[in-house]
Amino acid sequence: MGRVSSVRSTLKGNTVWHTMHPTWSAKEWRQYTPLYTHPARTTRAFAVSCLMPISLFWTGNNCGGILAWCAAASEKENEIDQGYDVMLRKAQVFLTSLHDPRRSLLENTVAILFALAAANLCAVFLVQGGYEFSIGSILVHAHYLRKSLLLCLALAFAKVWLDGKRTGRALFESLRSPLLLFLLTILIYSLNDRVLWSGDTIPARYLPLSLIRELDFDLDEFSFLYESTMPYFLTSSHRHVVSTYPPWAGVLALPVYLGPAFLGVDPTSLLLMMDLEKRAAMLITAASVIVLFFALQRVTLEKTAWFIALIYAFGTSSFSTSSQALWQHGPFQLFLALTIFCIVKGFEIPRFSAYSGFALGCMVISRPINLIVALPLVVYIVHKHRDQLVGFLLAGVPPLLLFVAYNTFYFGSPFATGIGTSVVAPSSVISKLSSSFNTPLLAGAAGVLISPGRGLLVYSPVFAFSVIGMIVAWREPKYLYLRYLSGV
Predict the structure, then answer these.
(1) Quick check: helix, strand or coil at residue 417?
(2) Among 392, 355, 360, 391, which Cα is nearest to 374's?
(3) 67-115: pLDDT as tens digits
(4) Distance between CA atoms of residues 460 and 315, nearest Å
(5) Residue 138: phi, psi to the nearest 5?
(6) pTM over 0.85
(7) Bridge partners, 234 (sequence order)
(8) Which of 53, 59, 106, 152 is most exposed, with the fewest beta carbons within 10 Å of its own?
(9) Is-contact 247 406, C-beta < 8 A?
(10) Contact in structure between 390 and 379 (CB atoms under 8 Å)
(11) How far apart are CA 356 and CA 396, in angstroms?
Protein backbone atom coordinates (compact mmCIF):
# COMPACT_ATOMS: atom_id res chain seq x y z
CA MET A 1 0.00 0.00 0.00
CA GLY A 2 1.33 3.46 -0.86
CA ARG A 3 2.03 6.24 1.55
CA VAL A 4 -1.14 7.93 2.69
CA SER A 5 -2.18 10.75 4.97
CA SER A 6 -5.16 8.96 6.50
CA VAL A 7 -5.64 5.39 7.59
CA ARG A 8 -8.86 3.71 8.61
CA SER A 9 -8.72 1.21 11.42
CA THR A 10 -11.59 -0.96 12.64
CA LEU A 11 -11.86 -2.15 16.24
CA LYS A 12 -14.87 -4.06 17.57
CA GLY A 13 -16.88 -2.98 14.53
CA ASN A 14 -16.28 0.74 15.17
CA THR A 15 -14.57 2.61 12.35
CA VAL A 16 -12.27 5.41 13.45
CA TRP A 17 -10.46 7.79 11.13
CA HIS A 18 -7.06 9.05 12.19
CA THR A 19 -4.91 11.77 10.71
CA MET A 20 -1.51 10.20 10.30
CA HIS A 21 1.94 11.39 9.39
CA PRO A 22 2.15 11.83 5.62
CA THR A 23 5.57 10.18 5.34
CA TRP A 24 4.59 6.87 6.98
CA SER A 25 2.74 4.10 5.22
CA ALA A 26 -0.40 2.41 6.47
CA LYS A 27 1.60 -0.76 7.03
CA GLU A 28 4.02 1.04 9.31
CA TRP A 29 1.19 2.52 11.33
CA ARG A 30 -0.51 -0.87 11.69
CA GLN A 31 2.75 -2.32 12.95
CA TYR A 32 2.96 -0.12 16.02
CA THR A 33 -0.72 0.70 16.58
CA PRO A 34 -1.35 -2.35 18.86
CA LEU A 35 1.10 -0.90 21.35
CA TYR A 36 -1.48 1.77 22.20
CA THR A 37 -4.69 -0.24 22.10
CA HIS A 38 -4.85 -1.52 25.65
CA PRO A 39 -4.00 0.20 28.95
CA ALA A 40 -3.01 -2.99 30.78
CA ARG A 41 0.38 -3.66 29.14
CA THR A 42 3.51 -5.35 30.40
CA THR A 43 6.27 -3.36 32.08
CA ARG A 44 8.31 -3.54 28.88
CA ALA A 45 5.51 -2.10 26.77
CA PHE A 46 4.91 0.61 29.36
CA ALA A 47 8.56 1.64 29.24
CA VAL A 48 8.42 1.76 25.46
CA SER A 49 5.34 3.99 25.56
CA CYS A 50 7.09 6.36 27.98
CA LEU A 51 10.09 6.66 25.67
CA MET A 52 8.02 7.00 22.52
CA PRO A 53 7.75 10.82 22.50
CA ILE A 54 11.55 11.13 22.78
CA SER A 55 12.05 8.63 19.98
CA LEU A 56 9.59 10.42 17.73
CA PHE A 57 11.17 13.80 18.33
CA TRP A 58 14.83 12.92 17.93
CA THR A 59 14.99 10.14 15.34
CA GLY A 60 13.38 11.94 12.38
CA ASN A 61 12.45 9.76 9.44
CA ASN A 62 13.99 6.69 11.09
CA CYS A 63 11.05 6.48 13.52
CA GLY A 64 9.39 3.78 11.41
CA GLY A 65 12.12 1.25 12.20
CA ILE A 66 12.13 2.07 15.92
CA LEU A 67 8.35 1.87 16.13
CA ALA A 68 8.37 -1.46 14.30
CA TRP A 69 10.84 -2.79 16.88
CA CYS A 70 8.62 -1.50 19.68
CA ALA A 71 5.62 -3.24 18.17
CA ALA A 72 7.55 -6.51 17.92
CA ALA A 73 8.42 -6.21 21.61
CA SER A 74 4.81 -5.68 22.71
CA GLU A 75 2.35 -8.42 23.61
CA LYS A 76 -0.65 -9.35 21.54
CA GLU A 77 -3.31 -6.73 22.24
CA ASN A 78 -6.40 -7.54 24.25
CA GLU A 79 -9.91 -6.48 23.41
CA ILE A 80 -10.78 -2.98 24.56
CA ASP A 81 -13.90 -0.91 24.70
CA GLN A 82 -14.66 2.22 22.75
CA GLY A 83 -13.72 4.63 25.53
CA TYR A 84 -10.16 3.41 25.84
CA ASP A 85 -9.89 3.28 22.06
CA VAL A 86 -10.73 6.97 21.73
CA MET A 87 -8.37 7.98 24.53
CA LEU A 88 -5.45 6.02 23.19
CA ARG A 89 -6.00 7.16 19.61
CA LYS A 90 -5.71 10.72 20.86
CA ALA A 91 -2.33 9.76 22.28
CA GLN A 92 -1.33 8.60 18.81
CA VAL A 93 -2.30 11.94 17.31
CA PHE A 94 -0.28 13.70 20.01
CA LEU A 95 2.78 11.57 19.28
CA THR A 96 2.42 12.26 15.58
CA SER A 97 2.32 16.02 16.20
CA LEU A 98 5.74 15.83 17.84
CA HIS A 99 7.22 14.74 14.53
CA ASP A 100 5.53 17.20 12.19
CA PRO A 101 7.79 18.26 9.30
CA ARG A 102 5.81 21.49 9.01
CA ARG A 103 7.32 22.70 12.28
CA SER A 104 10.01 25.24 11.68
CA LEU A 105 13.44 25.32 13.27
CA LEU A 106 12.22 28.12 15.56
CA GLU A 107 9.27 26.02 16.75
CA ASN A 108 11.50 23.03 17.47
CA THR A 109 13.97 25.26 19.32
CA VAL A 110 11.21 26.80 21.44
CA ALA A 111 9.79 23.33 22.17
CA ILE A 112 13.19 22.09 23.37
CA LEU A 113 13.74 25.21 25.49
CA PHE A 114 10.27 24.86 26.98
CA ALA A 115 10.94 21.22 27.89
CA LEU A 116 14.16 22.27 29.65
CA ALA A 117 12.38 25.15 31.42
CA ALA A 118 9.58 22.81 32.54
CA ALA A 119 12.12 20.36 33.96
CA ASN A 120 13.88 23.24 35.71
CA LEU A 121 10.58 24.47 37.17
CA CYS A 122 9.74 21.00 38.50
CA ALA A 123 13.15 20.79 40.15
CA VAL A 124 12.88 24.23 41.76
CA PHE A 125 9.27 23.65 42.84
CA LEU A 126 9.81 20.19 44.31
CA VAL A 127 13.33 20.68 45.72
CA GLN A 128 13.16 23.54 48.17
CA GLY A 129 15.97 26.02 47.61
CA GLY A 130 16.55 24.87 44.03
CA TYR A 131 19.73 23.23 42.85
CA GLU A 132 23.33 24.00 41.93
CA PHE A 133 26.01 21.99 40.16
CA SER A 134 29.07 22.51 37.97
CA ILE A 135 29.88 21.26 34.48
CA GLY A 136 33.59 21.93 34.17
CA SER A 137 34.00 25.64 34.75
CA ILE A 138 30.30 26.33 34.15
CA LEU A 139 28.08 26.77 37.20
CA VAL A 140 24.47 25.72 36.68
CA HIS A 141 22.01 26.83 39.34
CA ALA A 142 18.39 27.81 39.89
CA HIS A 143 17.09 28.92 43.27
CA TYR A 144 14.09 31.18 42.75
CA LEU A 145 10.65 29.78 42.04
CA ARG A 146 9.19 32.95 40.55
CA LYS A 147 11.97 33.39 38.01
CA SER A 148 11.57 29.78 36.94
CA LEU A 149 7.82 30.27 36.65
CA LEU A 150 8.20 33.40 34.54
CA LEU A 151 10.69 31.70 32.22
CA CYS A 152 8.46 28.66 31.79
CA LEU A 153 5.38 30.82 31.25
CA ALA A 154 7.14 32.94 28.61
CA LEU A 155 8.32 29.88 26.69
CA ALA A 156 4.89 28.25 26.99
CA PHE A 157 3.36 31.43 25.56
CA ALA A 158 5.83 31.37 22.66
CA LYS A 159 5.15 27.68 22.04
CA VAL A 160 1.36 27.93 21.89
CA TRP A 161 1.57 31.12 19.81
CA LEU A 162 3.87 29.51 17.23
CA ASP A 163 1.73 26.36 17.15
CA GLY A 164 -1.38 28.48 16.66
CA LYS A 165 0.24 30.53 13.93
CA ARG A 166 1.23 27.38 12.03
CA THR A 167 -2.25 25.83 12.31
CA GLY A 168 -4.07 29.06 11.49
CA ARG A 169 -5.63 29.67 14.89
CA ALA A 170 -6.27 33.18 16.18
CA LEU A 171 -4.01 34.48 18.93
CA PHE A 172 -6.68 34.52 21.63
CA GLU A 173 -7.74 31.01 20.68
CA SER A 174 -4.15 29.82 21.08
CA LEU A 175 -3.85 31.52 24.45
CA ARG A 176 -6.74 29.49 25.85
CA SER A 177 -4.31 26.71 26.62
CA PRO A 178 -4.66 24.64 29.82
CA LEU A 179 -0.88 24.81 30.19
CA LEU A 180 -0.87 28.61 30.19
CA LEU A 181 -3.82 28.67 32.58
CA PHE A 182 -2.05 26.36 35.03
CA LEU A 183 1.27 28.27 34.97
CA LEU A 184 -0.46 31.64 35.24
CA THR A 185 -2.51 30.41 38.20
CA ILE A 186 0.55 29.15 40.06
CA LEU A 187 2.44 32.39 39.35
CA ILE A 188 -0.31 34.69 40.63
CA TYR A 189 -0.93 32.54 43.71
CA SER A 190 2.77 32.83 44.60
CA LEU A 191 3.03 36.62 44.37
CA ASN A 192 2.44 37.43 48.04
CA ASP A 193 5.44 35.29 49.16
CA ARG A 194 3.78 34.14 52.37
CA VAL A 195 1.33 31.67 53.80
CA LEU A 196 -2.02 32.75 55.21
CA TRP A 197 -1.35 32.07 58.89
CA SER A 198 -3.84 30.01 60.88
CA GLY A 199 -3.54 27.36 63.54
CA ASP A 200 -6.11 25.30 61.63
CA THR A 201 -3.54 24.39 58.97
CA ILE A 202 -0.57 23.61 61.24
CA PRO A 203 -1.25 19.84 61.47
CA ALA A 204 -1.43 19.57 57.66
CA ARG A 205 1.84 21.51 57.44
CA TYR A 206 3.77 18.85 59.37
CA LEU A 207 1.80 15.70 58.57
CA PRO A 208 3.54 14.98 55.22
CA LEU A 209 6.89 14.77 56.99
CA SER A 210 5.46 12.25 59.45
CA LEU A 211 4.02 10.19 56.59
CA ILE A 212 7.34 10.15 54.75
CA ARG A 213 9.73 9.66 57.66
CA GLU A 214 7.64 7.72 60.19
CA LEU A 215 5.00 6.16 57.89
CA ASP A 216 2.20 7.19 60.23
CA PHE A 217 -0.42 9.88 60.68
CA ASP A 218 0.50 11.01 64.19
CA LEU A 219 2.50 14.10 65.10
CA ASP A 220 4.29 12.67 68.15
CA GLU A 221 7.74 13.62 66.83
CA PHE A 222 6.88 17.32 66.62
CA SER A 223 6.89 17.93 70.36
CA PHE A 224 7.59 21.64 69.91
CA LEU A 225 3.96 21.99 68.78
CA TYR A 226 2.57 20.95 72.17
CA GLU A 227 5.38 21.39 74.73
CA SER A 228 3.61 23.88 76.97
CA THR A 229 -0.01 22.93 76.36
CA MET A 230 -2.07 20.97 73.87
CA PRO A 231 -3.34 23.46 71.26
CA TYR A 232 -6.87 23.33 69.90
CA PHE A 233 -5.76 21.89 66.56
CA LEU A 234 -4.19 18.79 68.20
CA THR A 235 -5.60 16.08 70.43
CA SER A 236 -4.12 13.22 72.41
CA SER A 237 -5.80 9.94 71.53
CA HIS A 238 -4.72 6.33 72.07
CA ARG A 239 -1.24 7.44 73.20
CA HIS A 240 -0.67 9.50 70.06
CA VAL A 241 -0.89 13.19 69.25
CA VAL A 242 -2.99 13.69 66.12
CA SER A 243 -4.79 16.45 64.30
CA THR A 244 -8.32 17.38 65.29
CA TYR A 245 -8.93 17.99 61.59
CA PRO A 246 -9.07 15.37 58.82
CA PRO A 247 -5.54 14.62 57.57
CA TRP A 248 -6.18 14.37 53.83
CA ALA A 249 -4.90 17.83 52.88
CA GLY A 250 -1.53 16.69 54.21
CA VAL A 251 -1.79 13.50 52.17
CA LEU A 252 -2.35 15.47 48.95
CA ALA A 253 0.69 17.61 49.81
CA LEU A 254 3.04 14.60 49.78
CA PRO A 255 4.56 15.21 46.30
CA VAL A 256 5.74 18.66 47.35
CA TYR A 257 7.30 17.38 50.57
CA LEU A 258 9.10 14.31 49.20
CA GLY A 259 12.26 16.06 47.99
CA PRO A 260 12.77 18.30 51.06
CA ALA A 261 11.98 15.40 53.42
CA PHE A 262 14.65 13.15 51.91
CA LEU A 263 17.10 16.06 51.81
CA GLY A 264 16.66 16.60 55.56
CA VAL A 265 14.47 19.68 55.90
CA ASP A 266 14.36 20.90 59.50
CA PRO A 267 10.75 20.87 60.79
CA THR A 268 11.61 23.48 63.43
CA SER A 269 12.40 25.99 60.68
CA LEU A 270 9.11 27.83 60.49
CA LEU A 271 9.92 29.71 57.28
CA LEU A 272 10.85 26.54 55.38
CA MET A 273 7.76 24.67 56.57
CA MET A 274 5.45 27.55 55.72
CA ASP A 275 7.01 27.73 52.26
CA LEU A 276 6.32 24.04 51.69
CA GLU A 277 2.74 24.48 52.88
CA LYS A 278 2.19 27.39 50.51
CA ARG A 279 3.59 25.46 47.53
CA ALA A 280 1.36 22.48 48.24
CA ALA A 281 -1.73 24.66 48.64
CA MET A 282 -0.99 26.48 45.36
CA LEU A 283 -0.57 23.20 43.50
CA ILE A 284 -3.78 21.64 44.85
CA THR A 285 -5.89 24.72 44.06
CA ALA A 286 -4.34 25.22 40.62
CA ALA A 287 -5.08 21.57 39.84
CA SER A 288 -8.73 22.17 40.72
CA VAL A 289 -8.78 25.12 38.28
CA ILE A 290 -7.53 22.94 35.43
CA VAL A 291 -9.92 20.08 36.20
CA LEU A 292 -12.83 22.53 36.26
CA PHE A 293 -11.68 23.98 32.93
CA PHE A 294 -11.65 20.51 31.36
CA ALA A 295 -15.15 19.86 32.71
CA LEU A 296 -16.49 23.17 31.39
CA GLN A 297 -15.02 22.53 27.95
CA ARG A 298 -17.45 19.64 27.59
CA VAL A 299 -20.59 21.66 28.28
CA THR A 300 -19.87 25.10 26.83
CA LEU A 301 -17.66 27.00 24.40
CA GLU A 302 -13.93 26.93 25.07
CA LYS A 303 -13.73 30.71 25.50
CA THR A 304 -16.58 30.58 28.02
CA ALA A 305 -14.89 27.72 29.88
CA TRP A 306 -11.64 29.72 29.98
CA PHE A 307 -13.43 32.81 31.33
CA ILE A 308 -15.26 30.88 34.06
CA ALA A 309 -12.05 29.07 35.06
CA LEU A 310 -10.29 32.44 35.41
CA ILE A 311 -13.12 33.75 37.60
CA TYR A 312 -12.96 30.62 39.74
CA ALA A 313 -9.17 30.91 40.08
CA PHE A 314 -8.92 34.62 40.90
CA GLY A 315 -12.41 35.86 41.77
CA THR A 316 -13.32 33.46 44.56
CA SER A 317 -11.89 32.20 47.83
CA SER A 318 -9.63 29.96 45.75
CA PHE A 319 -7.39 33.00 45.46
CA SER A 320 -7.87 34.46 48.92
CA THR A 321 -7.92 31.29 51.03
CA SER A 322 -7.51 27.84 49.47
CA SER A 323 -4.28 28.64 47.61
CA GLN A 324 -2.65 30.32 50.61
CA ALA A 325 -2.47 27.47 53.14
CA LEU A 326 -3.35 23.78 53.57
CA TRP A 327 -6.95 24.27 54.58
CA GLN A 328 -9.51 21.54 54.02
CA HIS A 329 -11.01 23.76 51.32
CA GLY A 330 -8.33 22.94 48.73
CA PRO A 331 -8.89 19.16 48.65
CA PHE A 332 -12.65 19.73 48.80
CA GLN A 333 -12.51 21.98 45.72
CA LEU A 334 -10.22 19.63 43.81
CA PHE A 335 -12.38 16.56 44.41
CA LEU A 336 -15.60 18.47 43.73
CA ALA A 337 -14.17 19.67 40.40
CA LEU A 338 -13.12 16.09 39.63
CA THR A 339 -16.63 14.88 40.47
CA ILE A 340 -18.15 17.44 38.10
CA PHE A 341 -15.69 16.41 35.38
CA CYS A 342 -16.65 12.74 35.74
CA ILE A 343 -20.36 13.60 35.64
CA VAL A 344 -20.12 15.62 32.41
CA LYS A 345 -17.72 13.08 30.92
CA GLY A 346 -20.39 10.52 31.69
CA PHE A 347 -22.56 12.09 28.99
CA GLU A 348 -20.11 10.65 26.44
CA ILE A 349 -18.82 7.56 28.28
CA PRO A 350 -21.38 6.33 30.85
CA ARG A 351 -18.89 4.57 33.11
CA PHE A 352 -17.39 7.92 34.10
CA SER A 353 -20.60 8.54 36.03
CA ALA A 354 -19.57 5.57 38.17
CA TYR A 355 -16.03 6.92 38.54
CA SER A 356 -17.46 10.08 40.10
CA GLY A 357 -18.19 7.98 43.19
CA PHE A 358 -14.48 7.82 43.97
CA ALA A 359 -13.98 11.59 43.66
CA LEU A 360 -17.13 12.25 45.66
CA GLY A 361 -15.97 9.87 48.41
CA CYS A 362 -12.62 11.64 48.60
CA MET A 363 -14.43 14.97 48.80
CA VAL A 364 -16.50 13.80 51.77
CA ILE A 365 -13.64 12.33 53.80
CA SER A 366 -11.52 15.45 53.21
CA ARG A 367 -14.15 17.40 55.11
CA PRO A 368 -16.99 15.27 56.52
CA ILE A 369 -19.42 18.17 56.63
CA ASN A 370 -19.25 17.98 52.82
CA LEU A 371 -21.67 15.06 53.04
CA ILE A 372 -24.41 17.68 52.80
CA VAL A 373 -22.92 18.85 49.50
CA ALA A 374 -22.58 15.29 48.19
CA LEU A 375 -26.20 14.28 48.71
CA PRO A 376 -27.64 16.16 45.67
CA LEU A 377 -25.03 14.53 43.43
CA VAL A 378 -25.87 11.07 44.78
CA VAL A 379 -29.55 11.74 44.05
CA TYR A 380 -28.57 12.78 40.50
CA ILE A 381 -26.78 9.48 39.88
CA VAL A 382 -29.77 7.55 41.22
CA HIS A 383 -32.13 9.58 39.05
CA LYS A 384 -30.28 9.75 35.71
CA HIS A 385 -27.60 7.04 35.79
CA ARG A 386 -29.19 4.19 37.66
CA ASP A 387 -27.41 1.69 35.44
CA GLN A 388 -24.11 3.03 36.83
CA LEU A 389 -25.25 3.10 40.46
CA VAL A 390 -23.51 -0.13 41.51
CA GLY A 391 -20.21 1.06 40.01
CA PHE A 392 -20.72 4.47 41.61
CA LEU A 393 -21.17 2.93 45.06
CA LEU A 394 -18.23 0.56 44.64
CA ALA A 395 -15.98 3.44 43.53
CA GLY A 396 -16.78 5.21 46.78
CA VAL A 397 -15.66 2.25 48.90
CA PRO A 398 -11.84 2.87 48.86
CA PRO A 399 -12.08 6.40 50.34
CA LEU A 400 -14.59 5.14 52.91
CA LEU A 401 -12.27 2.29 53.93
CA LEU A 402 -9.38 4.72 54.32
CA PHE A 403 -11.57 7.00 56.42
CA VAL A 404 -12.73 4.12 58.62
CA ALA A 405 -9.23 2.71 59.08
CA TYR A 406 -7.79 6.07 60.15
CA ASN A 407 -10.59 6.80 62.60
CA THR A 408 -10.53 3.31 64.08
CA PHE A 409 -6.78 3.31 64.65
CA TYR A 410 -6.46 6.80 66.12
CA PHE A 411 -9.88 7.45 67.69
CA GLY A 412 -11.13 3.94 68.43
CA SER A 413 -14.32 4.27 66.39
CA PRO A 414 -14.89 3.94 62.62
CA PHE A 415 -16.86 7.15 62.32
CA ALA A 416 -15.43 9.30 65.10
CA THR A 417 -13.78 12.15 63.23
CA GLY A 418 -12.76 15.77 63.43
CA ILE A 419 -15.50 18.34 62.93
CA GLY A 420 -14.62 21.90 63.80
CA THR A 421 -11.96 21.85 66.49
CA SER A 422 -12.88 18.58 68.17
CA VAL A 423 -13.22 14.89 67.46
CA VAL A 424 -16.83 13.77 67.67
CA ALA A 425 -18.74 10.50 67.30
CA PRO A 426 -21.76 10.22 64.96
CA SER A 427 -24.17 10.31 67.92
CA SER A 428 -22.97 13.77 68.90
CA VAL A 429 -22.66 15.27 65.42
CA ILE A 430 -26.19 16.68 65.42
CA SER A 431 -25.77 18.31 68.83
CA LYS A 432 -22.37 19.62 67.77
CA LEU A 433 -23.81 21.20 64.65
CA SER A 434 -26.95 22.50 66.35
CA SER A 435 -24.85 24.28 68.98
CA SER A 436 -23.12 26.12 66.14
CA PHE A 437 -26.43 27.53 64.86
CA ASN A 438 -27.72 29.40 67.89
CA THR A 439 -27.25 32.82 66.25
CA PRO A 440 -30.41 34.63 65.06
CA LEU A 441 -31.14 33.85 61.40
CA LEU A 442 -30.75 37.35 59.97
CA ALA A 443 -27.59 38.10 61.91
CA GLY A 444 -26.12 34.75 60.92
CA ALA A 445 -26.98 35.23 57.24
CA ALA A 446 -25.41 38.68 57.26
CA GLY A 447 -22.28 37.26 58.86
CA VAL A 448 -21.99 34.46 56.32
CA LEU A 449 -22.67 36.65 53.28
CA ILE A 450 -21.28 40.14 53.88
CA SER A 451 -19.12 40.22 57.02
CA PRO A 452 -15.63 41.64 56.28
CA GLY A 453 -13.91 38.66 57.91
CA ARG A 454 -15.80 35.70 56.43
CA GLY A 455 -18.45 37.05 54.07
CA LEU A 456 -19.00 34.87 51.02
CA LEU A 457 -19.88 37.85 48.82
CA VAL A 458 -16.87 39.77 50.11
CA TYR A 459 -14.33 37.13 49.10
CA SER A 460 -16.32 35.69 46.18
CA PRO A 461 -18.58 38.50 44.91
CA VAL A 462 -19.17 36.67 41.63
CA PHE A 463 -21.43 34.25 43.50
CA ALA A 464 -24.08 36.96 43.53
CA PHE A 465 -24.69 36.08 39.87
CA SER A 466 -25.09 32.40 40.64
CA VAL A 467 -28.75 33.05 41.44
CA ILE A 468 -29.30 33.89 37.76
CA GLY A 469 -27.63 30.65 36.72
CA MET A 470 -29.79 28.65 39.11
CA ILE A 471 -32.96 30.22 37.66
CA VAL A 472 -31.87 29.34 34.10
CA ALA A 473 -30.99 25.78 35.16
CA TRP A 474 -34.41 25.21 36.67
CA ARG A 475 -36.24 26.68 33.66
CA GLU A 476 -34.45 24.62 31.00
CA PRO A 477 -35.14 20.85 31.09
CA LYS A 478 -31.90 20.10 29.21
CA TYR A 479 -29.89 21.40 32.16
CA LEU A 480 -31.09 18.72 34.57
CA TYR A 481 -27.60 18.01 35.93
CA LEU A 482 -27.19 21.71 36.70
CA ARG A 483 -30.28 21.60 38.87
CA TYR A 484 -28.56 19.08 41.10
CA LEU A 485 -25.28 21.01 41.00
CA SER A 486 -27.15 24.14 42.08
CA GLY A 487 -27.85 22.31 45.31
CA VAL A 488 -24.10 22.08 45.84
Answers:
(1) strand
(2) 360
(3) 333 344 444 344 444 555 656 666 665 555 555 567 788 888 999 999 9
(4) 6
(5) -95, 125
(6) no
(7) 243
(8) 106
(9) yes
(10) no
(11) 8
